[in-house]
Amino acid sequence: MKVSGMAGHLIRRLNQTSTQVFSLRMQMAGYDLTPVQFAALDTVCSSPGLDQAAIAAQIAYDRATIGGVIDRLEQKGLVTRKVNERDRRARAVTATETGQRVYQDVFEIVEGFQPEILSGLSAEEQKQFLRLAAKALAFNADTSPDAEA
Amino acid sequence: MKVSGMAGHLIRRLNQTSTQVFSLRMQMAGYDLTPVQFAALDTVCSSPGLDQAAIAAQIAYDRATIGGVIDRLEQKGLVTRKVNERDRRARAVTATETGQRVYQDVFEIVEGFQPEILSGLSAEEQKQFLRLAAKALAFNADTSPDAEA
DNA sequence: TGGTTATAGTAAGTATAGATACTATTAATT
DNA sequence: AATTAATAGTATCTATACTTACTATAACCA
């Protein structure tokens, strides 16, 4: 078996293609957002006031990375952070008005270019692929970083 | 459509699982190698004397990243670099004896844990997935970083 | 041959992506 | 209530994973 045909290699290449398509499309649309920044913004818009640890858990990241991501979203004026008065350890993150507007626009764009990531496959094959990918992940849903043992 | 069901998100999660399995298995076997370090070592062992740019092209990376990767492989005593006398810009990279020994051992291990990356799928589904992943990538084989326009 | 172009490697900078450790706070237990 | 354990966020560190720019060298070509 050659390395280039192994699951790990193929998955890395797919992720590479995915991020390339993402950054190209964002640039074309005039936005400066990375995939993880979009994922975090999506979570914040869907669940306003969530703290960083919960955001990280929701999208399967570690707290340290999400801390930096929220930093940059805040610098761009898309979200704000404020201390949760009922738990002073936590920071409630909320999307600004600009953040909500950007999110709605970008969501449509992101949804629109998903098929491009798998453009080598027919529509039916893409559905198959997504079904298999989701199933492959269903079992290790609890293996995200920061997950308590 | 929710973000968690989109191709980009699923692929990122798969890549995350893949790297987690890789680092866990390497640690269990007592090796200190990352996925890209293994990929580079694989290329060097298969094509001794290749320069860094060619290694990068082979495994779809940019030159800058591979430069650092080769640095670390060299520090670990797995490869050596020497100036190509016919083209003094290029550095011919070769695996040391230790590098070759480590490679042969690690290759077996890496090959062995590939099914674990897709452990949520049956053997037949894994084959399907790998076939679709390879096909999806076949068309954008030329979109790797550093590729000349 | 002289000038342009292209390429190999590196440097610097940004952003993940994560591990580990530390502080501040809260929860749980005795 | 005092101690202990757990958790949220941050800091630090390592390693990708790029982009852009720069230097050195080689290839081209008029």
Automatic annotation (TrEMBL), chains A, B:
Sequence ranges assigned to domain HTH marR-type in this UniProt record: 7-138
Pfam families: MarR_2
Record keywords: DNA-binding, Transcription, Transcription regulation
UniProt superkingdom: Bacteria
Top-level taxonomy: Bacteria, Pseudomonadati, Pseudomonadota, Alphaproteobacteria, Rhodobacterales
SUPFAM superfamilies (UniProt xref): Winged helix' DNA-binding domain
Name of the molecule in the record: MarR family transcriptional regulator
